[in-house]
């Protein structure tokens, strides 16, 4: 199996959720809101500017990729942030969706590890068309557990940082932290680490899973 093919399969989960465009939209909305708020000091105006920026991204993606659900999700998430911040008049509430996403993601990933159905394995199996064949390979299950644990650590760190900043009403630090920990930088690190773990195939019958065969536990 060539390195290019392994790389493509290892990153298929990332591609499935929209790739770097999805990451860029999340970063753009949070950064736009923070910059607009620093310039205008008006919560609703800043939130609408952020929504407008993401809407432009969505239209461009819809015209180029012909995919509806990925840009629609981005607009929906930012729309909820706009409603929260606009209804309360508190700038920190724009980042409440980011906090809830990180906390909720942490719970889901932790539960999946406890029941030994790691999220990364479930999603990667579905994206690759392998379904649950990876569960027959003990070594591959371990690797998916490690990859899921990497994202779990990211969710946990983000939640531990964002919640105190939100409760303290620190808009600027919260906006920066939400952009870094809930956006491209942290996600990029997790994806790279997972790629490093999953990229090397081992010769043997289950080569499509990237590791040698082991009996299920």
From TrEMBL:
Pfam family for this entry, one: DUF3159
Signal peptide start-end: none
Transmembrane stretches, start-end: 34-60, 72-92, 104-127, 148-168, 174-195
Entry keywords, A to Z: Membrane, Transmembrane, Transmembrane helix
Protein name: DUF3159 domain-containing protein
Native species: Kibdelosporangium aridum
Lineage: Bacteria, Bacillati, Actinomycetota, Actinomycetes, Pseudonocardiales
